[in-house]
Amino acid sequence: MSADLKIFVTLFLAVFVTTMGAGLVAPLLPVYAHDLGAGAFQIGLIFAAFSLTRSLFVPYFGKLSDRKGRKPFLTSGLLTYFLLSLIYAATKTVTTLILLRLAQGFASAMILPVAQAHSVGMLLGPLIGGLLLDISSFRLVFITGAAIMCIGTSVYLLRYGEPAQKIASYRRS
Questions:
Q1: CA 28 to chain CA centroid, nearest Å
Q2: Is a pLDDT exceeding 60 seen at residue 141?
Q3: Which fold has domain 3-172?
């Protein structure tokens, strides 16, 4: 496999599983928020928060990643997205959901300009999320979403992260 193809496959897999994890959770957020006591306006805020921060920061991170390199932004975005996803399972308030969505929009803005395998992940995520909710609970949906995002982050880090680069430099010496 050529180096370019390996890069493409790694980026595709990392972003694919990350968007699938997000897609797993997104269609269920209104139901979860309602269970936490959210009204229609607050549910709207939960979705608007993500879009707001992503829309504001995509141009910024796009330009910055062109100058500084894409790896730091993709790595930071994937790690942040993963860590924030873990918090969903412990969330008890609507305000926390809104803040999580603001932060995830920010993390998404670091990922989006760098690589997009968005459509397939967002196609499968809602289907799997709905199935998991039907057979279990919101907690399982959120934990599964976080696990899937962890896989995407790990795939990326193993190929491009600092540990992978250190291993490669040791091999060269």
A1: 16
A2: yes
A3: Growth Hormone; Chain: A; (1.20.1250)
